[in-house]
Amino acid sequence: MNKLFFSFNKLTVIGGPMFSGKTTWLIEYAINLPPHSFLLCKPDIDTRYNKHKCVTHNGRSLPAVNLNTKKVVFPTLSTDIKTILIDELNFFSPTQLLKAVNEQKKQGRNIFGAGTLYDYRKQPFGATLPLSKIADRFIQLYAKCDKCKKDAVHSYRKVKVTKQFLLGGKETYGASCDMCWELLNRQ
Fold first, then answer.
1. CATH of 11-142, one of 3.40.50.300, 3.40.50.2020, 3.90.950.10, 1.20.1290.10
2. Phi and psi for 84 in degrees, rounded to 5?
């Protein structure tokens, strides 16, 4: 499967539940680009695995620039940077991120962003859903349901914390299909 998307001034959003391979998609895309032609970014509040790298749940990583989630400002970029990849769109303010993305698109850059569309309660989460609705291209990824192993479209929380924002990995979250979500999310 050839994932390279060569048009310029385009926004591509990769969405899916936890453990669907969103960060893996970004990293694999990045390593196929010419060196020094891209910038990989992540939210400054995502410190789960490494503060200065995008890291998949299975440990694959690439260096990344931290972006402030409240006031998104990209560093000054050389004209060699043609692609910006942003992990965890769901942690960003939609209005702030959209403004920054549009500025980069005007400069001729492609933007690829990945994130969960909905939180563990099936509520919109951060900038992923709003950006997916205006994206030039949307890629839906699926995980495997923890219970029945069918395609999972939802994340569920394994711990009893009700606030929307809670950093975590396999110890905190799981993936579920629509049929198993209510049962898994109640545990």
1. 3.40.50.300
2. -120, 130
